[in-house]
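Regression report. Comparing outputs from two consecutive submissions.

Submission 1:
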Amino acid sequence: DPAFGHCVDGLIRLDLHSLRAAKRSRYLEAA
């Protein structure tokens, strides 16, 4: 199902984005 695959891809992209934001804030706190 292409629609389902696209939905999963979007979720993964969102997860990576939130992970990146969490790492960034952690580095800012450490500095």
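Submission 2:
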Amino acid sequence: MSRSRPAVALGVVVLVALAGCAGLSFTGPTGSTTSTGATAANGTTTAAPAAPTSASASGAYASLYDRTIDSVVMIRVVTPTEVATGSGFVYDDRGDIVTNHHVIANARSVEVRFANGTWENASVVGSDAYSDLAVVRVPDRPANATALPLASSAPRPGESVAAIGNPYGLTGSITTGVVSGVNRSMSTSDSFTIPGTVQTDAAINPGNSGGPLLTPNGTVVGVNRATEGDNVGFAISAAVVSHVVPNLLANGSYTHAYLGVSTTDVTPAIARANGLSNASGVAVVRTLAGGPSDGVLHGSTGYATVDGQRVPTGGDVIVAIDGTPVQTGEALSRSLLLHAHPNETVPTTVVRNGTRTTANVTLGTRPSPSAATGA
């Protein structure tokens, strides 16, 4: 039996993107990088060797497996209703293991199985539903279960990668492929997305959730999370992991900056309906009443039909935030996640009624998933 979140369609108004959680692998109900470098959890940056040629790819993947499998774990979770398994990997020398939030959500107990077959009871150190990241800690681990380095820069499309984990409970499985794309969005809940994600054609199946997506050099470029049909998988980027996980270790949670708007990417139809010269930027559909942008940014005032499409009109179009150009909703979400903080006032450049202007928005704190809406 397996559980996975259903695919979420790309909406016209609310900023939502391709999704489909790889989920967990169930064992039954309760009772039954780039090639440029890598950064370890302690912050040390090391140069990575050149990636292998296609002629040596098979041997390179076998070598990768041998070098990293001891650092990849199975995570077994008991919830009030079932027993499930996922994956994770050793993050630091303290025994901290990174996985997905959805792997350990609602856990009554967590156990970790290492490649040598030993099991350890684990405690949840911290988790964040919005980035779908979590950290669990074990009191002891095999000496060869060492920390895997995180990529210090984004991978390039076409780079070779491998996913290692426990699909359907099959321990220590490896699948291979390439980076198909970067800076994708995955939806989580309540219309929010995880930005900056890595797309791959390496097979990611239920039970792979939380495992590493690795270059042949052994560098983690993402945490496997989602699948969207054949040959389309997604992993939370190393950049997001590097940003969120230290906060989970220090505070047990991560506080997200909140703009309080619902948005949609500007399409040619939206550009035509609003008299924009370029189909670029993020249209503000509405602002949350009483939210950070209420009275500062302007939502749409109506709708028009262009080429059979109903599109918003009259609202602000965000084209930059804090000086960084914004062409898509993914770029806006990525900037808020990686560079912004609650209570920070950020200059937000918008096109309003055909005129480029700057509005200063004091960011709020994103509410809990059950109460949240918008960006």
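Expected: both submissions complete independently.
Actual: both completed, but the second showed a warning that disappeared on reload.
Relevant detail on submission 2: Helices lie at 57-68, 101-104, 238-251, 268-274, 329-339.
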